[in-house]
Amino acid sequence: MQFDLLIEFIGQQWLLVLFLAATLVMLFVHESRKAGPAVTPQQAINLVNSGGGVFLDVREAAEFKKAHIADARNIPLAQLGNRSSELSDYQDKPVIVVCRLGQSAGAATRQLREAGYAGAQKMAGGMMEWNAMKLPVVGS
Question: What pLDDT does residue 3 have?
Answer without folding.
Answer: 85
